[in-house]
Amino acid sequence: MKVVVYAVAAGKRSWAGWSLAPEIDTAYWLDPGYRAEAELAFREKGNDAPSRVHDRQPAAGAGEAGEAERLVAWTEPLPLGHALAVAERWPGGRLPGRRLDQTLSRLIADAWAGDARLGLPVPRQPAAHAAHVPRAAEPGAGRADAHALAARACRAAALLQGRALLVSEALALLEAAGAAGPAGAVPATWSAWAPALQLAALLGRLRLGGAVAPQPQPRLLRWRQALGARPRPRLRCQRCGSGTARMRRTPCAACGRACAYCEACLTMGRSRECGLLILGSPGSPDAGGSSPAVSPRSEPIMPAARAMPRQAAAPDLAVWNLSPAQTAAASAALAYINAPGDPRQPRRRFLLWAVTGAGKTEMIFPLIASALARGGRALIATPRRDVVLELDPRIRKAFPGAAVVTLYGGSEQRWEQGEITLATTHQLFRFREGFDLVIVDEIDAFPYHGDPMLHFAAENARTPDGTHVLLSATPPAALRAEARLGRLAHVRVPVRFHRHPLPVPALLSMPPVRKLLRQRGLPRGLTSALGRSIDRGAQLFVFVQQIRDVEPLAAKLRRFFPAIVIAGTSSQDPDRTDKVQQFRARAIRLLVTTTILERGVTVPKSDVFILDADGRLFDEASLIQMAGRAGRSKDDPAGNVYFCAPERTRAQTSAIAQIRSMNRIARRHGYLIENERR
Amino acid sequence: MSVGSILRSFRRAFPAFTALLAANANACLVCGGRCEPRQQGHFGSLCRTCFRGIPWITRVYCLICGRPEHCPDCVRRARAAFVLSRSAVRYDAAIRAWIAQYKYGGNEAFEPLLGELLTMAYRGLCAELRLPPSMPRRFDAVIPVPVSEARLLERGFNQAERLGGRLAESEGIPLVDALRRTRHSVKQSAKTRGARLRDTHNLFRADSAAVAELLHSRSRPDSCRLLLIDDIYTTGSTVNACAEALADALRQAAPTLRFEIYCLTLARS
Ligand SMILES: [Zn+2]
Ligand SMILES: [Zn+2]
Ligand SMILES: [Zn+2]
Ligand SMILES: [Zn+2]
């Protein structure tokens, strides 16, 4: 889109802004009566806003700025990308008289010249100049308008709170909320909402910025620029955090220039240099369009003015019926969450490292309850959609009184606001500073693990003083190292909910699967171990590396064990869900599969055979997760796990070491049932 | 300065524009699998499976619209304003997904590939019409089917104009943005066939300045051959309405001129 760029001189200050609805900015800056009325209406309305709102005095910035002496606006609308650049590079300071106009003209010319330097075609510009905008003939005449518009702005700000949305998404949300008023069926149009959004931004209740925007330049560079150094544009997707490497520049009819869009988050709607990103988190008031969309984390927005004080007293955990290890972990997490923030540690992350089958969902219940008790909002995100769908009924059951919103691609509740939000990690792009508690489950699972874009989204979804809780049975090495070095607050849950030790994998030396499939027989060690498991009535998981080995191996095993039903499944199997169901129901006794079932699937009384355990695709985390399928139920807590391979790799030995170490810690803390017997 | 002329100036300055910051050149554009480097041109951005899945139209059934099976629409139409229409591929699920990703999803990385498909259709059309490559100007202009101003602002581009622009560029034919959409119509796909035919009446008009430019640049004095471009041919009502508007304008501006309007689309549904 194109926006109107303007510059204001007020006493010792000057600034550049841009606007979706310039008549609002003009009235706001040049007519003190209009501004006072809007601020008054906003304060009245602000109190009945449904959600947590930072109680801010909007007058602070305006007071400092004093009376606007002169306002000049560029006579042609400019591409949003250029408007952002002008606002970002505005020198500030006192600019009396024509110097204001000259500075605006110079920066706009610079922006186009920057395109030319990049080798981008610059369309011929229509003649345009900075025009002085006169004061309204009758000051205060627009008071009634100001009041009505402020009411709409307030409603929009409340509905968009905690969100990060593109224009089309914001309109869909406003429409879904029936924000248009009693005639709610009217589709939300941009021309109807732009003035309200602009006023909300002026009053500091929303932040408006480019979806792809120049990264703020370090001070030193700015200084060099002032001396004539060429500015090097570094674009960043404000929604997913991707840098220039993921941008594609194409001629754009919406802004009339070659503007960049982000390819990394394209599946969530196109984030573009000339497209708006509306952030429903309070910015600095009066900033107009000049504040960067992402506020630096090192300056939390007025933590003292937080509406809900942190709770000092330890909440009663007994209601949750947790095991001793679960209780200890939940208390440690709560203590961290409720402690006052450490200004040197702005990230506020807490790692909950809980072994497979520890019952992490139960452990997060008290954390959610505590966030809700403070009047905050909680988010539980997980990389996988099936986990979201599985968690949904459990959360609703545990929190019957809370509004729960479940989000995934195509979810019906897409634009709803709740106290507890359950979402796939991709949905986090649509939030910014929206949650006091952000819990990310399975941080080491695809696609979250190794995707900086999803990490960016998760980190930005929490309020500046909110907490980010990371859950995993197998945290990535980098996080483990941070925890070890004391840089990451964490707690380990070394024992399963049933308080029996984790089954320790046994090593079984045998040839690779490829070779087995070519031979007539099967190694004695394998057949006798499989036979023992079958005889004891267990369900057998047999993991292989390659999808192509699944069916041939299943066929071969059928010949050796004709008495039981054997099936194979992989990510390419359309009947996978059905087969897993049958496996759970014991209609299938042995299931040959790949890492696709390494997590999430819990089957009582099962044994685990990992073939080609030395393979490249089975890393330490993957081995621990697969081993974690065994011994999950209280009735059969032991279970057998075999790492079958010709070679013993580092991944295998460290997986075994990690399992052993967890058992040791559990024993030392007295968490195991065997401790009690003694 | 119209949006169209800005885009034209872009293209002149930077023909390979959208390939500018292409990342991950070895992954298949569609499925992420490994690419087939031996494929010609932009088909190299596909893996073997995706390339083999392209539903080429190799034999047409309806000689007017190029449909590969029986076609009731052309029989029903009393008089078509275009001579004939040809398409590169059938509009199957895969092509539907490609076009949707490009047009609605804004994934402009698909543009070179779709442009290449259109070029293949163009070569087929020329062969069918016996217009040899040695012939200097096989067509006098490439004319894209326009989208409404609102749609253009929302999407940032007109797919027909972009794809037509690529064809025009590679074949050395002038691209003339000669048509305008007079009103914003409801999405074609959301309507019934009858409603679609009714709605397209008077939906387009020719821009007189662009028509003058077109007449000025033609290579033969008494006749001209024009090529209308769109992404999808469904009932033919859109291209026919465009051809009608164009024919009216040409008859008015140059009453003695003989002209033929052909259509070329990416996909035939
Ligand atoms: Zn743009
Ligand atoms: Zn992005
Ligand atoms: Zn492919
Ligand atoms: Zn036909």
TrEMBL record, chain B:
Keywords, ordered alphabetically: Signal
InterPro entries: ComF/GntX_DNA_util-trans, PRTase-like, PRTase_dom
UniProt signal peptide: 1-27
Family: Belongs to the ComF/GntX family.
Protein name: ComF family protein
Organism, scientific name: Paenibacillus glycinis
